[in-house]
Design goal:
It is a single chain. This protein is α/β, with parallel strands linked by helices. The chain folds into 2 domains: 223 residues, D-Maltodextrin-Binding Protein, domain 2 (3-Layer(aba) Sandwich); 194 residues, D-Maltodextrin-Binding Protein, domain 2, CATH 3.40.190. It is built from 19 helices and 14 strands. The strands form 4 sheets. Strands 3-2-4-11-5-12 form a 6-stranded mixed beta sheet, covered by helices on one side. A 4-stranded mixed beta sheet has the order 7-8-6-9. Helix 2 runs antiparallel to helix 15, helix 9 crosses helix 10 and helix 9 crosses helix 11. The longest helix is centred in the C-terminal third of the chain and has 18 residues. It starts with a strand and ends with a helix.
Length: 429
């Protein structure tokens, strides 16, 4: 089968797709409180990366290509994702911080900009990124109008499954929630766990279920307003989300709270579990001989009158305002934004992402083509819980959702506690 070449979303398509993200994201701060030195300190710039598993995001290849140009040297330091997330504030506030970092667009980046921790890279945009869609450019700004983020790619989420296992079970992907529940019952009756998830070391994965159920039931505007603090987590509309989640709880692994991410992926790969709600990065978490057997379907439609919303997180780079090598850092970021740089990243990631640079020419595999078409057909896109709400709120979601997995009968108390924790987190941010 031949698949069309990928040139990223067109400016019109991505502008439409990201309108809701931008509307729901109120920029909150400046950057570069302390002007970086005009002359770089000697030595290599350090790139801190959270891509420390099998799928390293193409960072080694990107750095090797940049270093080969003789315009300075960058070294790579990779850290496990959860450790990285916890340590990033410490890195950025260090006396001698690393120079640049893998990160993602949204409130999580603006929160650092608000603390004057990010380098103003508007000149990188002005000189090298004039063709990038205006919506992505707006998503990369702080409230002073300065660009502080370089987007490299975006990706989709879906309900992943092994095509051969579905064939063995004699089932097909559902389109509606009722069909999904019926499918889950059928799979369970055949002695297979319908849904895998690993919450013991990655509790944030449960937020994907919250996000999708909320946008399917209450719509994208309510969801983004909720994450922006305009609604409360103990709102009756949020309780509807949890009631719907309760319907599917019997079909998760019984030990979901005690299963690690790696084990949950192994269960899917081995056919012990049939489905996994995950981002496109799942292709880096399963064995190579399983990747070609992966398929996914759109998160089921619950209310057909609610416009379809999909999750489409944008990844890229930020840089420290305290870098002692600002010129080298900006040269590297410009390369990361270039057609050459992003083609390197996309080739390394395979079917796991779509390029942000509209001039990138990559022939899409079947999953990437399906993901691209799904995102382009959506009425709106959001990102992920912490990207739209801010990193400070993610632990509050983790606590509420994991408690619900074990105590679904206590939903009212859980939501009340969540609202109090969210209000406290917002007050302290």
């Amino acid at each position: 089968m031949t698949h069309r070449s990928h040139r990223g979303l067109t400016a019109l398509a991505i502008a439409a797709a990201l309108t809701t993200i931008l509307a729901g994201c109120v920029a909150t701060g400046g950057s570069g409180a302390v002007a970086p030195p005009k002359k770089d300190a000697p030595g290599a710039a350090i790139l801190q990366s959270r891509f420390s598993d099998e799928l390293k995001g193409g960072m080694p290849e990107l750095i090797a290509a940049f270093n080969a140009k003789g315009k300075g040297k960058v070294t790579l330091n990779t850290i496990p994702t959860e450790t990285y997330r916890q340590q990033l504030p410490t890195f950025l506030t260090a006396k001698n911080p690393p120079d640049t970092y893998t990160w993602f667009a949204g409130e999580a980046t603006r929160a650092f900009a608000n603390q004057n921790l990010l380098l103003n890279i508007s000149d990188v945009w002005d000189k090298n990124m004039t063709k990038f869609p205006s919506a992505l450019k707006a998503l990369s700004k702080n409230d002073k109008g300065q660009e502080v983020f370089v987007p490299t790619n975006y990706y989709w989420w879906g309900m992943y499954y092994r095509k051969s296992e579905f064939a063995k079970l004699g089932v097909t992907p559902p389109k509606t929630w009722d069909e999904f529940i019926t499918l889950s019952k059928t799979i369970k009756s055949k002695g297979v766990t319908p849904i895998s998830i690993g919450l013991s070391d990655n509790p944030w994965l449960a937020s994907a279920w919250f996000d999708y159920l909320d946008v399917r039931i209450n719509g994208g505007k309510f969801h983004l307003d909720l994450l922006a603090g305009k609604h409360q987590f103990d709102d009756p509309k949020v309780k509807l989300v949890f009631e719907k989640l309760k319907e599917v709880l019997p079909y998760f692994s019984k030990s979901a709270l005690g299963v690690s991410y790696n084990q949950s992926m192994s269960d899917l790969a081995q056919g012990k579990a049939a489905m996994y709600l995950c981002g496109a990065f799942i292709s880096g978490a399963v064995p190579k001989d399983v990747k070609g057997d992966l398929g996914f379907f759109q998160f089921p439609i619950i209310d057909p009158s609610v416009p379809v919303v999909e999750e489409a997180p944008a990844d890229g780079f930020i840089a420290s305002a305290g870098t002692t090598r600002p010129n080298l850092t900006k040269r590297f970021l410009a390369f990361a934004a270039s057609t050459e740089g992003q083609e390197i990243l996309m080739k390394a990631q395979g079917d796991a992402a779509l390029a942000a640079n509209p001039d990138v020419h990559i022939t899409l595999g079947p999953l990437a083509q399906q993901g691209k078409e799904m995102l382009e057909s959506a009425a709106q896109v959001t990102q992920f819980f912490n990207r739209d709400a801010g990193d400070a709120l993610q632990p509050t979601a983790d606590a509420a959702l994991t408690q619900f997995f074990s105590q679904p009968q206590n939903v009212d108390a859980i939501l009340a506690t969540w609202q109090k924790a969210a209000a406290k987190a917002r007050a302290g941010s």
